[in-house]
Specification:
Blueprint (H helix, E strand, L loop, with lengths): L1 E9 L6 H13 L8 E4 L3 E6 L4 H13 L5 E9 L14 H16 L3 E4 L3 H18 L4 H12 L5 H8 L3 H10 L2 H16 L2
Parallel strand pairs: 4-5
Antiparallel strand pairs: 1-3, 1-4, 2-3
Length: 201
């Protein structure tokens, strides 16, 4: 099984495309090469694949990156399933993971939520989607400053609060307050729960 994330940028028409698209490309490059592992298409939509145990952390890396740009957000559909056909271009590959993810993005556009997951198990979907709806109330309201800190923590898991204070030219206590406001410890626990549920598939 693999995880496929299909997403689109919310409010992309009100932002400097060159800034966010360059940052998104640089992020996705960390996880594989285009167009085999990821692709940005139709201006503001993207798709990439990863291991199922990494998918929540990958989702948060993208969410925090985009939220750290003024007035931008991202809609993300997570599909877990098989890859029956692997093309040289991810957008031409196929399997249940791709079908789940693509259809789910269309559903998200109409229901107003910013993240959802579809697997082969209705029970797992129910549990994880309730979790995502609750946690998204936090993620969708991150300030730019909070999103920046979260993104650094996700991308550099060994980074210290002292390192973050230097990077953002703020005090260590300010870093600590931002992480507390973002419920970072709860985010880490949520990632562990997510991995455990998906491993049951």
């Amino acid at each position: 099984m693999i995880a496929v994330i299909t997403g689109d940028i919310i409010n992309s028409q009100h932002a400097d495309t060159e800034v966010w698209i360059t940052k998104l490309k640089n992020l996705l490059e960390n996880w594989g090469s285009s167009p085999l592992a990821w692709e940005i298409y139709r201006g503001d939509e993207f798709q990439f694949k990863c291991n199922i145990d990494q998918v929540f952390w990958r989702f948060l890396a993208i969410k925090s990156l985009i939220r750290s740009q003024e007035n931008l957000d991202v809609r993300i559909a997570i599909g877990i399933g098989e890859e029956n056909f692997s093309s040289e271009k991810i957008t031409e590959s196929n399997g249940t993971a791709y079908v789940h993810s693509g259809r789910l993005l269309n559903d998200l556009k109409s229901d107003g939520h910013t993240v959802s997951i579809k697997t082969s198990s209705e029970a797992v979907d129910r549990d994880l989607n309730i979790l995502l709806k609750w946690s998204s109330k936090d993620f969708d309201s991150w300030t730019v400053a909070t999103a920046e800190i979260i993104h650094e923590m996700i991308m550099n898991e060994d980074i210290t609060q002292e390192d973050l204070a230097k990077k953002f030219a703020i005090s260590q206590s300010s870093v600590s307050q931002r992480l507390k406001r973002a419920n970072y410890e709860l985010i880490v626990e949520t990632n562990q729960y997510f991995r455990k549920k998906i491993s049951e598939l």
